[in-house]
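Quick start: read one record
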Amino acid sequence: MSLRIICQHTLKNSISDVVVSFTTNLQSTLILSPTALALGLGKTVHGCLLKSNVAKDISLQTALLEMYAKNGELGSAQKIYNSLEKKDVVMQTSMINGLAIHGHGNEA
């Protein structure tokens, strides 16, 4: 799914549709290609979602946190983690894994 299509989809559809589309595509992109290109796409989509005010969903936040954490962008992952009032087990595990994988086991 191209960035333009995701942004258009975000503006035209319900939040649940956007969350499902984004998380599915983000996870498959990062599994197939955990590269700077995939991270760049994820950051761009994140910006688009922030502008459309959709980025508050816990599933979406978890997918974004996981994207940043897996790619070593721990500052961005921590920012998302700290911004949420309620943190579920999946989000906590994603943050712990990201810290541990990138050599920050003591912080985890």
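The longest helix spans residues 15-32.
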